[in-house]
Amino acid sequence: MDPAPDMSLTASSRAGGGGAGGPTAADDSREPPPVSEYLDHLAFERGLSANSVAAYRRDLRDLVAFLRTRGATADGATAADLEAYFTGPGGRGAATSVARRSSALRGFYRYLFNESRIGNDPTRPVRPPKRRQSLPRVLSVEEVEAVLAAVRASGDEGRRDLAMIELLYGCGLRVSELVGLHMADVDLEAGLLRCVGKGDKERVVPLGGYAIAAVQRYLSEGRRRVLRGRRRDELFLNAHGRPLTRQGVDYLLRRRVRAAGIERPVSAHTLRHSFATHLVRAGADLRSVQEMLGHASVATTQVYTHVSAEHLREVFLESHPRARRRRSPAGGGG
Predict the structure, then answer these.
(1) pLDDT tens for residues 320-332?
(2) Active site residue 174
């Protein structure tokens, strides 16, 4: 889970003030001025979401820590420093993580260069290591049905969870989009849902019949009971009538997945991946899937064609009599 973004840096703290006693040892965990100024630029001028700014903060803090081991600073780094970073800690992990770090660093140094804080952009000659893109983990249709069946069998307390999972899988929502839903965002009569995704981009997603029925039942029999006459605009609430959090969704989903007999890790994003993969396998065009997922580029959505192709390959290898070359019997031949 992402840690809560620290947006509390004040002008005095960025200038190095630590109160009457001056800076303390804890200041080592703070961003240096060029980094904190760039984060403010992302938040207040470019309007990036708190989650996006938090991701940039983590990546730039990691870079600063690495540069410190080389006796370099964020605004004094050279191309050789950045090459070393990507050869080392910056090049580890999933391909998406490496790409995100590269994007964070390039944006940061482009900002410093445009603001005349540095004489040249050290990221220009740097080529981060290419890593094989891992395919997203998905559930089969049968596994999704098993999770939903386990929730339905749980009685009254499962109404909210059933509505939640139907929206995650039926609409391909991110967990942040799910917990950000308000009552006015769901039009059950028209079968449409409005959500706000990355970069505060708004999109409208169609609701399927199962999702509509699950949300209707949750609103009439579950949510009303939790509120006990109080009023809340948020759609999904916890047992105390407060808005459901990302951590709450993660806990509830893990619990429901275990009840369905699925042992491997499953997150809200697994359901989003499953939504897209099942659409592509069923013949949905990529542009439509892109719109429903809220991807800025169809290139991001194309990963689901690879997932679908891999699935077809597995089916072929398991099913076709001449898909695998059989070994000759011992002593046979001639």
Answers:
(1) 676 666 555 555 4
(2) yes
